[in-house]
């Protein structure tokens, strides 16, 4: 089973910034759609941002203008730059990679990284 590895979470004050990273195996990274999700205890996992293999991006309304998703195919790494953080951004953040290889669907997730924003 392929495992994605997130890093960059931590504790930050409201108004601050963090950059999350997600490392993935190189065999499929460049062709994958990559997502960032977040989830609080007892709540549904929420899609935060998405980027296609071609670089098209989408964001949840709650993070538009504050978060930026990007990818570096040469480094097989996905990023989420989070600025102007708010206490309500406190969650565990997960990255996801999915797509199709030789007709077979794949869907891989990371283990999550905690982001805590203090007021």
Throw out a few tags for this protein:
single chain; 119 residues; mainly beta; seven-stranded mixed beta sheet; four-stranded antiparallel beta sheet; globular
SSE map:
Layout: E1 5-7, E2 10-13, E3 18-23, E4 33-39, E5 46-51, E6 57-59, E7 67-72, E8 77-82, E9 91-101, E10 104-109, E11 113-118
Parallel strand pairs: 2-11
Antiparallel strand pairs: 1-3, 3-8, 4-5, 4-9, 5-6, 7-8, 9-10, 9-11
Task: Characterize the structure shown.
The chain has 119 residues and is mainly beta. Helices cover 0% and strands 54% of the residues. It has no helices and 11 strands. Strands 2, 4, 5, 6, 9, 10 and 11 form a 7-stranded mixed β-sheet that branches. The protein is globular.
What sort of overall outline do the alpha carbons produce when their principal axes are compared?
globular
How many helix segments? 0
Assembly type: single chain
Stretches with pLDDT under 50, minimum 5 residues:
none
Radius of gyration, whole Å:
14 Å
Main beta sheet strand tally, sense and closure: 7 strands, mixed
Share of residues in strands: over 45%
Helix content: under 10%
What is shown here, in short?
The protein has 119 residues and is mostly beta strands. Helices cover 0% and strands 54% of the residues.
